[in-house]
Amino acid sequence: MANQLVLTEQGSGRSLKVNVNHVFNAGYAGSDQEKVQEHIDELQKLGVPTPQTTPTLYPVADNLATTTDKVQVQHHETSGEIEYVLIWAEGELFVTVGCDHTDRKLETHSVPKSKQAYPNVLAREVWRFEDVKDHWDQLEFTCWIMEQGERKLYQKGKCSDLMTPAEWKENFNKLKVDEEGNLFFSATINTLTN
User: Fold this and answer.
1) Best CA proximity match to 132, nearest among 167, 178, 92, 169
2) Is the residue at 111 inside a domain?
């Protein structure tokens, strides 16, 4: 039985049923690839296996896609980070925000396995890509975390900080990402240092 998500289209309020076919997590997909390489170098020093090419796409299990508002973790070395999510459904392309929650401890052994350890959470409300594409670079991300009972700003940036859907087109075509029922998690923006 397929994993089905029920989403709401912003503006029209129409219900959108998505039978999830495949889920893809992007990695190392910042618009500034020099900064991406700096990040890869930092990760390598921490013992995280580095990719052979960038950007990278990691297929994950379709049942990991969810709209839950809670994620149970096994230990304290996990994190979620904000990103855009593309959804192909009912013959159209939709966009929302999401998080491919990652096991940071497992990541030091295998990035693909760390992506499979926790759910890929996406918001229940979506927008038609056609309605936002003309102002894509101005769309903003803001992510807050709770740390020792205090709400703190964790990430702030724009879609322009990440590769655009158009820049992914060749990869989408090769791996058949842009097909009905598929979800694409874009990778994330930088975290803020405290």
Assistant:
1) 92
2) yes
What pTM did the predictor assign?
A: 0.89
CATH number, position 120: 3.90.850.10
Q: Decide if 75 is inside a domain.
A: yes
**Distances in Å between the alpha carbon of 172 and those of 14, 27, 111, 137?**
27, 14, 20, 20
Give the pLDDT confidence of 157-166 residue by residue, as tens digits. 999 999 999 9
Structural domain boundaries enclosing 50? 3-185
Alpha helices per DSSP H over 46-176: 104-107, 111-116, 129-132, 169-175
Token pair of 124 as six digits: 């229940």
Closest CA to 100 of 23, 43, 165: 23
What is the spatial distance between Cα 193 and Cα 156, in angstroms, rounded to a whole number?
11
Euclidean distance between the first and the last CA atom of the chain, given in angstroms as a whole number = 44
Q: Provide mean pLDDT across the span 71-80.
A: 86
Question: What total of structural domains would you count in the chain?
Answer: 1
